[in-house]
């Protein structure tokens, strides 16, 4: 038995948006290498390592639209932190095993990294290694 739905009852769907072709992709603006919002909203004098490490952490997180998320308790103890940078802000993933000092230090450090600030050389306990989150995607 076949069921047909009258055209008057069928929902009307919006038209499918036009997908960009290779030619139109060339004319689209390229995504910024670093945070776009910091280039327009955060004053230049606030984009220095000195400012980032001396400002109150809560004020700094608000200024850079950054938020801290703690990893689950069963996270590998060798993991300390990571970040996801988007135009809309920064998500800072911290290990739940960090000390109070490290919970203050690593968000500041990761914000500096997102801005491309040179922090070398760091003291010996804070030597780091940057790895891509996904294979084939540069860190």
In terms of quaternary structure, what is this? single chain
Helicity range of the residues? 25-40%
Tell me the strand order in the biggest sheet: 1-3-2
Structural class: alpha+beta
The number of strands is 3
Question: Any low-confidence stretches, pLDDT <50, length ≥5?
Answer: 30-34
- Structural Rg: 22 Å
Global shape: extended
Secondary structure tally, helices: 5
What does the model show?
This protein has helices at 22-27, 36-40, 49-54, 57-63, 100-115; strands spanning 66-70, 81-86, 89-94. It is α+β, with helices and mostly antiparallel strands and 139 residues long. Strands 1-3-2 form a three-stranded mixed β-sheet. Strand 2 (81-86) and strand 3 form a beta hairpin. The longest helix has 16 residues, at 100-115. It is extended, with a radius of gyration of 22 Å. Mean pLDDT is 74; it is low at 30-34.
């Amino acid at each position: 038995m076949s069921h047909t739905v009258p055209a008057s009852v069928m929902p009307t769907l919006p038209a499918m948006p036009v997908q960009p072709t290779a030619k139109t992709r060339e004319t689209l603006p390229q995504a910024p290498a670093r945070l776009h919002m910091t280039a327009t909203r955060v004053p230049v004098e606030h984009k220095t390592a000195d400012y980032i490490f001396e400002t109150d952490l809560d004020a700094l997180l608000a200024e850079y639209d950054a938020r801290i998320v703690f990893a689950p308790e069963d996270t590998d103890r060798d993991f300390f932190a990571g970040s996801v940078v988007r135009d809309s802000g920064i998500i800072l993933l911290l290990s739940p095993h960090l000390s109070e000092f490290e919970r203050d230090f690593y968000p500041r450090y990761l914000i500096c990294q997102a801005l491309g600030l040179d922090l070398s050389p760091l003291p010996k306990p804070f030597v780091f290694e940057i790895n891509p989150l996904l294979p084939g995607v540069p860190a």
